[in-house]
Amino acid sequence: MSAIYDFCADHKVNNMTECGFKRVLLFRPDNIGDCVLFSGTLKWIRRRWPDAHIDLMVQPHAMNLFELCPHVDRVLSVERLMPWLWMQRRGWKGAWLTERMFEKEWAKHLLPYPAYDLVICPVSAPAEQCLDVVRRIHAPEKWGCGGFQLNAGKLKNEDNRPEKVFTDYYINTEAEAWQNEFVRTGNFLKKFGIDFSDINPEFWLSREDHEYAERIMPRDETIGLFVGGFHSWRRWSAEKWKSLIFQMDSQLPVVI
Fold it and tell me: What are 238's strand-pairing partners?
């Protein structure tokens, strides 16, 4: 896969000359909740580069959220660049060893890292795995988040510091650590000159999806609660969900 460069000098983003990007990768390797919150940005990214080929790379369990999205050309699995995740999900005992192997610089030649004109990684607190993959993708421009990082900790490889991985980045401050995600995402888009009016989440549904929803939620107004969480410490107990539902004081049906 080769990158096609079309350099232009007539547009600036934060004093940085912006290329006429032909191939753009949106790298979003976090979990479903973050992907849902990010979904409303896709139409604005498409409007920013209407003629570009845009790939969106997410975790396998989030791919169905975007398979009908008209704003991207392809939805890819991060397992292409993180094979140890594929092994972990299938219970392979050698997954941890594979992960350690790919931390080595010589191992980067074992995977076909793709080439793009621009990689956008809007993860506000990227883990080192995420930063390492972005570093190895071939692209002259890489945009992401830097500054105060909740997930960074002590990096095993100093080359994975955001200021080394990204050619430009939005700086998170410690005061913004628990900032509303929509506010942070809006600031990220502004940083890179992407105009927008709202970034409310979007869902792209098939006819079968609509018919299924009609069967399980026949009323026009329904309260839907998703009670799961990837990490156990993010999961509420049944009693807390029960308390929340009673506090709503609503006559609308609740679907869990």
Answer: none
